[in-house]
Model the fold of this input.
Amino acid sequence: VLEEQHFSIVMLDIWLRGMDGLEVLKRIKERFPALPVIMISGHATIATAIKATRMGASEFIEKPLDLEATVGAVRRIISEHTHSELDLKHENDAETHSGVQVSAFEIAGDLHAELNRIAFAGQRLAGRRVAQRTLASSIVLYGQGLHSGVKSGLILEPLPPNSGIHFIGMSDPIAVPAHVDFVESTGYATMLKFGATQAATIEHLMSALHAFGISNLLVKCNGEVPVFDGSARDFCQLFETTGFEEQSGDWYEIEVKKIYRVGNSKEFIQIEPADEFSITYTLDYPEPVGRQQMHYSPLSAQTFKRDIAAARTFGFVKDIGALQSAGLALGGRFDNFVLIGSDGAVNTELRYPDEMVRHKILDAIGDLYLLGRPLRGKVTASMTGHSDNIALLREIRKDL
Done:
């Protein structure tokens, strides 16, 4: 059929009767290397999605097909194909990196200059100079939103130095920067919003980005970052498989010069001057969770993978009905969070004896990266959540 007729785009199901979709993709790319192919699958693994992308697939969409995501994929391919045919000479490095064909300035719109000043220049509280980095290549992932319950894709694309981290919809041209100024809500998860673009449940991804020191990245998602297994473990593994690109450019820690604190005597989070970033977190629930406390330092990819990354989101049996009635936790399955009953975890074995407090630290590491620069200071927290983390950042933000 491809030999006899001209096609602009091919949509190819990975599961074909009597045929291997990946083998068909290989044959298409061998005969028609410039022909864009959108792969479709109902239950492919992350590894399969990555393999298809590396074999030349332009996009990878999960069934049941979402109209917005599908149309967005087609629009992106048409746009890229048009740019290629016209051989635009003015495309810069950011356009080469970004599938949405925009520069770092366009990604953030009119906000870029201000965010660049905050995140990438020597400002007040500027501490040690640290290297910038991004991913060596793009990553394609698929999963389900914890709160929306919607199956969606996630694409991570490298960006040039001094770009920052930005979230964008699969078919939306407007990006929202990963910055506290754009935090819309903190109810059970952290959500960014700018205009019509929103990105919810970003904390696990942001935590891994913080630990691995990734400063420039474009994140494409359909409104909510997939939860995967409820931890940050998958992100860490994929980052290491993909590799990193070290980048030049000025980027400074935020060195805390005084104590910042929000909350009360029982529920609080504070940060004070210190030589390195650390967190001491205290959790105090009724049994079977009980009192858990952990001190975590220093923040590095190695310690994060070992001590924090695998800790999963947790919830209580008594709360699930109310959460789902409120439109939350709709994607909670038995394999993507720890469900706690009167006698302990009811759906899984714990990965750590104190997995709950470790997950609280995971969330905090993610939220505390929303100033666009790594923090240096000693964090102490007790019985706090996303709202408290963001409130602390807003206090620090006043001095930047």
User: Anything to note?
Assistant: Residues 82-105, 107-114, 145-149, 327-333 have pLDDT under 50 and may be disordered. The first helix runs from residue 21 to 31.
